[in-house]
Design a protein that fits this description.
The complex is a heterodimer of chains A (about 150) and B (about 150). Chain A has about 150 residues and is an alpha+beta fold. Chain A has three helices and five strands. Chain A has a five-stranded antiparallel β-sheet with strand order 1-3-4-5-2. Chain B has a domain of about 90 residues: Thiol Ester Dehydrase, Chain A, CATH 3.10.129.10. A five-stranded antiparallel β-sheet of chain B has the order 1-3-4-5-2. Classes of the chains: A alpha+beta (about 150), B alpha+beta (about 150). At the A-B interface, α2 and β2 of A face α1, α3, α4, α5 and β2 of B.
C-alpha cells in the first residue's frame, strides 16, 4: 500500500465537529525487527540488548517514507523545519520484538503558532490496541544565512 | 487515592516524595547524534547540519529530544525493575547542544498501593547550568499485576 492509498483509504473518515478534518494514514504495517530494536537500544541510554522493545522505539516509525513525506508537506516544505515540542506515549500492552503491528496516524495542523500534531495508534494485526503516541511539532521558518 | 502502606499488598511500594536516583547521560557528541539518526531514522538536518541549526537560530547542533527522552526509561528501570511504564509525557523546554549532557532525576508525585498499584512520577532532565530542559510525567504500574505483554 502506498502513501496515496493510505490517504485515499482515509478520505471517508468524518471530521470532528467544528474542526478541519485531519489527514490520516491507515493500516501501515510495521515490524519490530530484532536487529533494529537492538541497535536502537545500544544508542539510547544503556538498557542493554534485552529481548524487549524500548518505550520510545515506535517514534522511529514516524520516519517511514509515507509518514515523513506528509510531515514535510504539512510543515510547509522547503524553508521550514519541524521542531519537536512535546511527546507522549500511552501503553496498553508492551510491544514484542520480531512481531508485526499496524499504525494509524492522524495529522492535524494548528496555527498561532504554527504546529503539526500527530496522533499515532499502534495495534496488533488482530486489531488490539497496544499504544498511543502524540507528537507536537512546532514549525520553524528557517532564516537565510547572512554572510559573515 | 490510597497511599502505599495503608493496607497495602506491597510493603515496599514507593511513597510520595521518594526520589528516583539521578543519572547522567552524555555528553552527546555530534557522532552520537549521527548514530541516533541512523537507528531512529530521525535525520532532521536540524540535528546534523550546522547550517540548518544556525538558520533555525541555534548556536550549535541540538540533541534530538527523543534521544534524551529515551534516557528516562533506563532511569525508571534502574530504580525499580518491577514496574511497567504505562504513560510518559514530556515537554522539550530548551535545546541541549551537541557536546553537552543531561542529568535525569525524579520523584514520586502520587502513589496508589492497593488493588492496582500505580505511581505517578515527576521527571526532569537538566542541562547546562542545571536548567530544566525536559519536564515529564510518567505513570507506572506494578508489572506483575497489570499490563499484559
Amino acid at each position: 500500500m502506498t502513501a496515496r492509498d493510505h490517504v485515499q483509504a482515509a478520505a471517508a473518515l468524518p471530521a470532528e465537529p467544528g474542526e478541519a478534518a485531519p489527514v490520516r494514514l491507515l493500516a501501515i504495517r510495521v515490524r519490530t525487527e530484532p536487529d533494529e530494536v537492538a541497535a536502537f537500544l545500544r544508542e539510547t541510554g544503556g538498557l542493554g540488548t534485552g529481548d524487549f522493545v524500548p518505550l520510545t522505539f515506535p517514534f522511529r516509525w514516524l520516519t517511514l517514507p509515507a509518514i515523513r513525506g506528509l510531515i514535510l508537506q504539512l510543515s510547509g516544505g522547503e524553508g521550514f523545519l519541524p521542531v519537536h515540542e512535546a511527546q507522549s506515549f500511552a501503553y496498553e500492552r508492551s510491544l514484542r520484538t520480531d512481531d508485526d503491528y499496524l499504525l494509524d496516524v492522524a495529522f492535524q495542523t494548528a496555527e498561532k503558532p504554527p504546529r503539526l500534531i500527530l496522533k499515532m495508534a499502534v495495534s496488533t494485526v488482530q486489531g488490539e490496541i497496544c499504544a498511543h503516541l502524540e507528537t507536537v511539532l512546532r514549525i520553524v521558518r528557517l532564516t537565510p544565512e547572512t554572510p559573515s | 487515592m490510597t497511599e502505599a502502606g495503608k493496607g497495602t499488598l506491597l510493603p515496599d511500594w514507593p511513597k510520595v516524595g521518594d526520589e528516583i536516583g539521578a543519572r547522567n547521560f552524555g555528553p552527546f557528541e555530534p557522532a552520537a547524534l549521527i548514530r541516533y539518526a541512523a537507528v531512529s531514522g530521525d535525520d532532521n538536518p536540524l540535528h546534523l547540519d550546522p547550517a540548518a541549526a544556525k538558520a533555525a537560530g541555534l548556536a550549535g547542533l541540538p540533541v534530538h529530544g527523543m534521544l534524551m527522552l529515551s534516557c528516562f526509561e533506563p532511569v525508571i528501570m534502574g530504580w525499580r525493575r518491577d514496574l511497567f511504564i504505562t504513560r510518559l509525557s514530556a515537554k522539550f523546554l530548551r535545546p541541549v547542544l551537541a557536546g553537552e549532557g543531561i542529568r535525569v532525576l525524579g520523584r514520586v508525585l502520587r502513589s496508589q498501593g492497593d488493588a492496582k498499584p500505580e505511581l505517578i512520577l515527576r521527571l526532569t532532565a537538566r542541562g547546562a547550568g542545571d536548567a530544566i530542559v525536559i519536564l515529564a510525567e510518567a505513570a507506572v504500574q506494578y508489572k506483575n499485576a497489570t499490563v499484559p505483554s
